[in-house]
From TrEMBL, chain A:
Keyword Membrane: yes
GO MF annotation, one: branched-chain amino acid transmembrane transporter activity
Keyword set, alphabetical order: Cell membrane, Membrane, Transmembrane, Transmembrane helix
Lineage, broadest ranks: Bacteria, Pseudomonadati, Pseudomonadota, Alphaproteobacteria, Hyphomicrobiales
Protein name, entry field: Branched-chain amino acid transport system permease protein
An annotated GO cellular component: plasma membrane
From TrEMBL, chain B:
Organism name: Phyllobacterium myrsinacearum
Protein family (similarity comment): Belongs to the binding-protein-dependent transport system permease family. LivHM subfamily.
Name of the protein: Branched-chain amino acid transport system permease protein
Main location: membrane
Domain of life from the UniProt record: Bacteria
Keyword tags: Amino-acid transport, Cell membrane, Membrane, Transmembrane, Transmembrane helix, Transport
Amino acid sequence: MADRERLVNITLALIVPACALAAYGMGEPFYVTLATRIAILALAATGLNLALGLGGLVSFGHAAFFGIGGYVAGIFATHAFNQIPLLVSPVTLMATNQMPVIWLVSAVVAGLVACLIGLISLRTSGVYFIMITLAFAQMIYYFAISWPAYGGEDGLSITVRNGFPGLNTLDPLNFFLIAYGLLLLALSAFSQLRDSRFGAALQATRQNEVRVASIGIRPLRIRLVAFIISGMITAIAGALFADLNRFVGPSMLSWSMSGELIVLIILGGTGRLFGPVAGAILFVLFEFALGGLTEHWQLFLGLILLAVVLFGRGGLVGLLAGKVRHG
Amino acid sequence: MSSALLIEQALNGLQFGVMLFLMAAGLTLIFGVMGVINLAHGSLYMVGAFACAAVAAYTGSFWLGLVASLIAAAAAGAIVEVTVIRRLYNRDHLDQVLATFALILIFSEGTRWVFGSFPLYLDIPKVLQGAISLPGGAQYQLYRLAIIGAGLVVAIGLYLLIAKTRLGMRIRAGESDREMISALGVDIASLNTIVFALGAALAGLAGALVGALQSVQVGMGEPVLILAFVVIVIGGIGSIKGALAGAILVGVVDTMGRFLLPQLFTLFMQPSQAATAGAAIASMLIYIVMAFILAVRPKGLFAVNA
């Protein structure tokens, strides 16, 4: 069974870049952008999969981290383009348009916010946790709307996509490779974490909190660390997403974005390494195929999702590679 | 700042709180009895508003529209319970979140399909148009006062229903032990449908009442739904009393914060900066209040012993 999952994973890992390369070769940059979108959404959902899939923390507020990453990218791009320092006192701080720095800043800011949200929300569990993460994400959403310095309700356009040393990010294939490379990095980090002592402890807190506590591991600390790492990965995806669209707005922070990230994981397979990738492929293809047929494609997405939740558990990876034996 | 303005804003806060209570009462009842988190509650609010606007536009009577909103929302709630929610009782919260998220997509797109993307408008009924004078010289919109009155009547009615009637007794019994009351011969399936339809009707009523103050459009339910979540998290999930206290608190804090904070900030900031900063902080205020309450009482103000 494990071999079958490996086969499915390798297929999924190869199919996205193969399609992107083929589209690029045939001079169809639109499909390269579609593949980039898949890679970025899969990266965001991989972050969430760490908290939700391994830790059982149903965060309905991961759009907060996604949006924070997006706003960091947008703010840096605007400041760098206009040559306005980010900070004047106590030290003058110039903005950069280099992606690695932006990713680092996104991850640090999102990590701090995740730490604050986690400290309050992880004291609760179940429905409370769902509602509180949703409420905090909504708080940041309203802050972004009512703070006019960076576009408020209208959002922020990124005039020139941020750069990456040695690559031309304006070329769709180069940008795809950056996003896809980060996705592979995140997937390998996810699998390392899952098989580490930390990952074992995290999965154990999901299965039985009392037993974990009784052998001397503090569930709160394990969950908090998982929640922070999860938010950081999602924030880096958010920075890429803003660069992909050359725009960041409050919609990246909205509750429906949080919902979509959960949907990606469920469509693909909860807690599975390649679940988010499979989910992102399905989601973007649904959006593209159904969106071409009818403007009411979300109605059909809702029906499909309802059917998956009620009748087809385990998602696409579960369907292809079989169910996991342990719960 | 005049006292008349202050009274007006306080009443606005109360009206907002009462409206949130109508939403939160249904949510907390459904969670208390069935253990289900229903994200689609905001869609039922939207169904009520659309039913009221459509019937009022067709017949010319707001009151017929109000009746229609109750019937439409209760019917939508009952259908949703029988077809979808019933299958989720023994599932984990993740499945409930996803299934009801799917319902939001279906309701929103379905409504957009039928009514189009343009908002509908609903007029305030003739009897309730105009303003009345309050002590202290303030003028206040009669319709908003009527909403406050209607909300308080519903709160008392709900209390009587739950504390004094046979149905209420079954609801309370269902909250404490589902298996036991079904073993005692109560038809738990139809009790669930009734509770869900009741919660839906309250949400539909809220939608219809607010529809006359704002425009009726797709997506109007979700911001209110999220505030209703904040309300029941503050009040304690499953507690109607907590929902009332939480709703009034959230309504008043939010409205007064938006009114007072920008003025407060002018004491130590330039007026333009104070307006921006005040508005930004005010939009986050209720979430900050929620965080503080949770830090002190993680299960809410009126926690129900589970």
